[in-house]
């Protein structure tokens, strides 16, 4: 296997409808975007355009000291899965964490990882039992 570099890009709050073709043309392997405040509404542009690469819609608003619950993040992931395939979906905070302290970051990231695990388990259970979908 040849070595490869995976390219990630991040875009802060944007209205992607006007620029989605240009974003896709950047050919980044993964784009992470801030979507927690909009409850994933910003993903609409990606659904109608059929974005070809992976997307990390933020499930944790790092601009607030509030620590979201695991359940809240699971809900956001489920909304993202209405637009994205599980193979496209990356789970991440909205942005970098430098504005937050460890007392906020650690429990939020623990909840985020637990939310990702719970949603993956539901997806696996649905594959095993399609009648549950």
Please give a structural write-up.
Helix 1 links the parallel strand 1 and strand 2. The protein is built from four helices and three strands; from the N terminus they run βαβαβαα. Helices cover 38% and strands 9% of the residues. The protein is globular and about 40 Å long.
The largest sheet, given as strand count, sense and whether it forms a barrel, is: 3 strands, parallel
Q: Flag low-confidence runs.
A: none
Query: Alpha-carbon distance between the termini?
Result: 37 Å
Strand content: 5-15%
Structural class given helices, strands, pairing?
Answer: mainly alpha
Oligomer: single chain
Q: What's the order of the H and E elements? A: EHEHEHH
Classify the helix fraction into a percent range.
25-40%
Q: What strand order characterises the main sheet? A: 1-2-3
Radius of gyration: 15 Å
Individual helix count: 4
Number of strands: 3
Mean pLDDT: 88
What would the principal axes of the Cα set say about the shape?
Answer: globular
Helices and strands in order, then pairings?
Blueprint: E1 8-11, H1 20-25, E2 30-33, H2 44-49, E3 54-57, H3 70-80, H4 102-128
Parallel strand pairs: 1-2, 2-3
Helix pairs in contact: 3-4
Keywords:
3 strands, mainly alpha, 38% helix, 133 residues
Describe what is shown at a glance:
The chain has 133 residues and is mainly alpha-helical. Helices cover 38% and strands 9% of the residues.
């Amino acid at each position: 296997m040849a070595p490869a570099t995976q390219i990630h890009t991040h875009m802060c709050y944007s209205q992607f409808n006007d620029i989605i073709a240009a974003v896709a043309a950047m050919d980044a392997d993964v784009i992470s975007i801030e979507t927690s405040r909009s409850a994933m509404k910003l993903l609409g542009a990606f659904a109608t355009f059929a974005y070809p690469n992976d997307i990390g819609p933020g499930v944790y608003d790092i601009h607030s000291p509030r620590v979201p619950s695991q359940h809240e993040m699971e809900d956001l992931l489920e909304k993202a899965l209405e637009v994205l395939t599980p193979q496209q979906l990356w789970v991440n905070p909205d942005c970098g964490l430098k504005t937050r302290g460890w007392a906020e970051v650690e429990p939020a990231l623990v909840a985020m990882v637990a939310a990702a695990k719970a949603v993956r388990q539901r997806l696996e259970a649905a594959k095993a039992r399609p009648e549950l979908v």
